[in-house]
Amino acid sequence: xxxxxxxxxxxxxxxxxxxxxxxxxxxxxxxxxxxxxxxxxxxxxxxxxxxxxxxxxxxxxxxxxxxxxxxxxxxxxxxxxxxxxxxxxxxxxxxxxxxxxxxxxxxxxxxxxxxxxxxxxxxxxxxxxxxxxxxxxxxxxxxxxxxxxxxxxxxxxxxxxxxxxxxxxxxxxxxxxxxxxxxxxxxxxxxxxxxxxxxxxxxxxxxxxxxxxxxxxxxxxxxxxxxxxxxxxxxxxxxxxxxxxxxxxxxxxxxxxxxxxxxxxxxxxxxxxxxxxxxxxxxxxxxxxxxxxxxxxxxxxxxxxxxxxxxxxxxxxxxxxxxxxxxxxxxxxxxxxxxxxxxxxxxxxxxxxxxxxxxxxxxxxxxxxxxxxxxxxxxxxxxxxxxxxxxxxxxxxxxxxxxxxxxxxxxxxxxxxxxxxxxxxxxxxxxxxxxxxxxxxxxxxxxxxxxxxxxxxxxxxxxxxxxxxxxxxxxxxxxxxxxxxxxxxxxxxxxxxxxxxxxxxxxxxxxxxxxxxxxxxxxxxxxxxxxxxxxxxxxxxxxxxxxxxxxxxxxxxxxxxxxxxxxxxxxxxxxxxxxxxxxxxxxxxxxxxxxxxxxxxxxxxxxxxxxxxxxxxxxxxxxxxxxxxxxxxxxxxxxxxxxxxxxxxxxxxxxxxxxxxxxxxxxxxxxxxxxxxxxxxxxxxxxxxxxxxxxxxxxxxxxxxxxxxxxxxxxxxxxxxxxxxxxxxxxxxxxxxxxxxxxxxxxxxxxxxxxxxxxxxxxxxxxxxxxxxxxxxxxxxxxxxxxxxxxxxxxxxxxxxxxxxxxxxxxxxxxxxxxxxxxxxxxxxxxxxxxxxxxxxxxxxxxxxxxx
Length: 852
What we know:
This protein is α/β, with parallel strands linked by helices and 852 residues long.
């Protein structure tokens, strides 16, 4: 090909419309309905054509139309009003300003690292729930005014677009993203693009820096598809979750290591690094390297200091979900990096191993993040429990209940996911304060006083909009498939505005059991076609390109949709994305979710329905396990576990049919004299009042800030003070423990000889422990006690600290203490010994705890 001379063309806006450019380049517009309506007013049809992308809209509007708008006094008044409110938002006092600004250390900043961000469909660098959560996290951080920046990758193709062939089999398209027609801009220094170099085997790969704005928050993104790189390396940021294991490693190196170098280059180094899922965990290693280079620390001291400023959120419900890399691959990619740290490469690999003594154990990104973070959390209460069990299999010396993983239940950014009609309606009744604080229980409580007929009317309006949109999408996808005109025409009358409408839309992973509803098709058809109480279903979702079983689920559903006796009341919408999601969550009556418990880490789609007045029908998994209340939705089963999955599928599908037939449909169709479903509306109100103020990202981000960001910041300041004195001391202590831990032995233990004790009594315990050269002040000895199971194993145990009494000579020490008898039953205790230090980030550190 001939040499191409590249130039960039931008929309030419009349001076009076320049404010539009600023509004277009800040994704604040995507959660502010006034700004959306302003852009829609420019050209409604074109707005739909460019898929809600204001940058592309301004580039495609004819110049004469722009000139006309510049002289349109009505449009100018609208623009000035919207822009003024935008400026008020950007410059106004925030929750952080009021409560924390003067308390935080100078230069406090959080770096939020994530492989994907779902902020808007106009910036398609997301695939599913993880990205939606990350995008909503940034938006609430903006609303609350928290000093936070996002760090990610800018994918040339992002995730795939879905379409189905004539047989209903998922096909994937990977259209290129045009960054110059998206709400991102190149970051320039001295008029030149910023390139970040990262070492890969035998070469340096460069990432170009881009920036997107989400309100007050900047999101910085790295792009390797530039001429400085080889064709192979340009592919690193080509597809989200594309390629093989080695490509995943390359992407995660660019995200973690490149991301840290990027914020350092931009003078935006965070005090707290938030690792959103293990994909970004290599930032831990780069932070260590930076501390060694900048402060001439020894590697172990740098590891302690770096870890004190990190926190880790895990979203994975099964060990198979963690990214694993072989020792051979790690050797190849990190041999040079380890040399720069002046440590053996095996010591670096051990940072990502549960068992550091197994040379063949793969490197685990989640273990790297867990070991090198001061705090770790799951994303729902149940997922916190599951995560403690998962990591206990990796690091089994720590009891499950003491595995240091807490939880912060996910939420949704309410202004993003609430329909314009519902938002305006609630502001009318709850006041303008609701716009800025959609997590206030007191404001949501006022929903109780809203007239039932008005709330129902708003919901019905969104339902009509959903059905109208679904019909158009069905017709388009049938035309694309080459379906007969008769089928295309029939799609125009699919679904009913008055029918009970149930939505199911999510990633088609097999554990989400999208086909559970089809287990008894005759019974399902009877529910769908009930002449008195009909039910209709709208399905949507994508399977991962390599998930053949997930694709089979889609095909099975599509084939069911085509049957003559259900085709008008059971539909599948292709290419599920944020835009389709907003129509669904704001228009359905009920949201169905039936994963295999406990494999749904959290789930947020049902929360979006709640904010819009919809109800949930779900397995007690993820968020619904803690959210379910009998007067605010329905639970499928009672959290039972069956060893036979097929039997469980049968039982729980029957439970869904039973609820639809006997509770949900009858309640929906029970009307008063004014044709209102009064009891249904009461349940809608209960759901909104009890759940919406809790399951949102304003509450979630405040929890992250108060429980993790603040203490992590305080710990990092403490560990880095006085030229990292505490980090140095802690690393010396840890090395001393490792060198002498093999000398530690539990010689024996004794207890009062009483056979029976009463509740409230104390059992005196004495333990004899050989510590060798270790100082007793750095050793903790516990009587680990609790109820016994049938095999005489301690369950739900806890450690009772035994106090040092005396040295018995030859390295032996005596410890004594009282075990409190909390409850009746068979109990037991055992002795355990573990290192302790005031600067350890977790009460139980990652050591080989010695058990009696």
